[in-house]
Specification:
By secondary structure, the protein is α/β, with parallel strands linked by helices. Helix content is about 15%, strand content about 15%. Among the domains are: about 35 residues, no CATH class; about 40 residues, no CATH class; about 90 residues, no CATH class. It is rod-shaped and about 185 Å long. About 35% of the residues are buried. Pfam families: Peptidase_S74. Keywords: Signal.
Length: about 525
């Protein structure tokens, strides 16, 4: 009777196609209910067949989906649930990566990506945040990075950062950093590294920017190179500029073929072209000047509109504003020139005392040119120089075809007789103060600086020469008074030869007259034979 009852129950459940264990109202074909949902016992559950190893004979397709529990490791298979799918497959082995991390991975077989011929995309808040293109070889990582890419028209681009290369359709571009190359459209072969670097570039090509805001406003400019914070930041359409250093060429807009190396080098340049500034603040305020070269800290740093200057050395031509065609080589050379032109200085502090707008002055040697305030002067050496010379004498053009208003107004004996030849010793400090408006020499004392004071010179006193010339009514070119009345007198000793020749001629004439008179007297006093 008991067996009959069980059979009856099974038959009735089979007719209903549902079986319930601990349940009279099964909700599925097989419904196993715990003894207590709130306080289950340790025997509530289903035991899948447990095996120590997989069967020697594999199941058939009829058993696909059959499940077992492997109790001990079998080969490379670890204990756990397995099901048959043409081979024994661990339950969960084909599930997605855990958000809490994964373990037991195999780098040769486990990966995140695709197995078909498709690109791999990443999203954040359902917004594109990364993509590895199958066609075109481009790679993008960052919020909306490379969003407008159109492969295969957009090829071989790399973007890393928020909105990097966001609007890009050009190829061969690299943008690393937030907003890097953000507006680039069809520009190609651009490289950008840093926040907002090359951000406004649209069609410009072959530009390189490294540093926050480097080449920020560049739109169509080509072949520009900027390394440093805000380097070439304002550049728009200019081309072939090179800027290395914080704010180097930062204000440049359309100036082209400029080179700036150093913090603030050529920072103020806007439209000036073919300038070279190397060193901190070199050519700092140049705006529209052309073809200037400033090498050294602060070289030409206040020059604004001047052109064709060469300054090599720290603080060279540091005061120049609009003067052009000047050359200074050495620390502080031509330091006080402002508007002067065609001046040349070679040596530390050479021509540093030249002021304002003097022109065509040449100073060669350390500290040369002190006291020179007028144009068309050449200065060689400073007040310590003991000897200037060479194998031959200086030559002076003296062609009759180049001389006008020729006269014989040279004074001779009358002038020469008034001169007082003297010997004297030179005082270096007095001359320095005289040439520099009473300032003392603060430069370092070096070996031999005062050796000139040991020499006993022969010569004249310039003021006495001036007096003799005035008394003789002689405009003597060998005397050069200070142009402003404050500097030092100078004498051109070679020009004393001319009045000396005149004096000898006058003296010879007197001698010949005396000789003629003596002959007449001798003849008168000689008795006839």
């Amino acid at each position: 009777m008991k067996s009959f009852s069980i059979l009856l129950i099974l038959l009735s459940q089979g007719l209903l196609a549902q079986i319930g264990i601990n349940s009279t109202t099964p909700a599925a074909m097989l419904d196993v209910t715990a003894s207590s949902a709130t306080a289950p016992s340790n025997t509530d559950g289903i035991l899948i067949p447990r095996i120590n190893s997989f069967p020697a004979t594999n199941p058939t397709t009829a058993q696909s989906g059959m499940m077992v529990y492997l109790t001990t490791a079998s080969g490379t298979n670890l204990p756990g649930f397995y099901y048959w799918d043409g081979s024994w497959v661990a339950v969960g082995s084909k599930t997605g990566w855990s958000v809490n991390g994964n373990s037991g991975t195999n780098e040769t077989t486990d990966f995140i990506g695709t197995t078909d011929v498709k690109s791999l995309s990443f999203r954040m808040s359902n917004i594109p945040a990364g993509k590895i293109e199958k066609v075109g070889g481009s790679v993008y990582f960052g919020h909306s990075a490379g969003e407008a890419a159109d492969p295969p028209n957009t090829m071989y681009c790399s973007a890393f950062g928020f909105w990097a290369l966001k609007d890009n359709t050009g190829s061969f571009n690299t943008g690393i950093g937030t907003y890097a190359l953000r507006n680039n459209s069809s520009g190609t072969y651009n490289s950008s590294l840093g926040y907002e670097s090359l951000m406004q570039n649209t069609t410009g090509i072959q530009n390189t920017a490294m540093g926050a805001s480097a080449l920020y406003f560049n739109s169509t400019g080509i072949r520009n190179t900027a390394f440093g914070y805000r380097a070439l930041r304002s550049n728009t359409t200019a081309e072939r500029n090179t800027a290395v250093g914080t704010s180097a060429l930062t204000a440049n807009t359309t100036g082209y073929s400029n080179t700036a190396v150093g913090d603030g080098a050529l920072a103020g340049n806007t439209t000036g072209i073919r300038n070279v500034g190397i060193g901190q603040s070199a050519l700092l305020y140049n705006t529209v000047g052309w073809e200037n070269i400033g090498i050294g800290w602060g070289a030409l740093n206040v020059s604004t509109t001047s052109s064709y200057n060469v300054a090599i050395g720290s603080l060279c031509m540091v005061g120049n504003t609009t003067g052009g065609n000047n050359v200074a080589i050495g620390y502080g050379g031509l330091g006080n020139i402002t508007t002067g032109t065609y001046n040349t200085a070679v040596g530390n502090y050479a021509g540093v005392a030249l002021g304002g707008g003097v022109q065509n002055v040449t100073c060669i040697g350390n500290g040369s040119g002190f006291g020179t305030t007028v144009t068309n002067h050449i200065n060689i050496g400073n007040g310590s120089v003991l000897w200037i010379g060479g194998q031959t004498n200086w030559g002076t053009f003296s062609d009759a075809r180049t001389k006008d208003r020729i006269s014989e107004e040279v004074k001779g004996l009358d002038f020469i007789k008034k001169l007082r030849p003297v010997t004297y010793h030179f005082n270096y400090d007095k001359e320095f103060a005289l040439l520099n408006n009473g300032k003392k020499d603060t430069t370092a004392v070096y070996d031999g600086k005062y050796d000139i004071e040991k020499i006993k010179f022969s010569g004249f006193i310039a003021q006495e020469v001036e007096k003799a010339a005035n008394e003789s009514g002689y405009d003597f070119s060998g005397l050069v008074p200070p142009p402003d009345g404050k500097g030092a007198y100078t004498l051109r000793y070679a020009e004393f030869v001319v009045p000396l020749v005149k004096a000898m001629q006058e003296q010879q004439e007197l001698i010949e007259k005396l000789e003629e008179r003596i002959r007449r007297l001798e003849k008168q006093n000689t008795p006839d034979k």
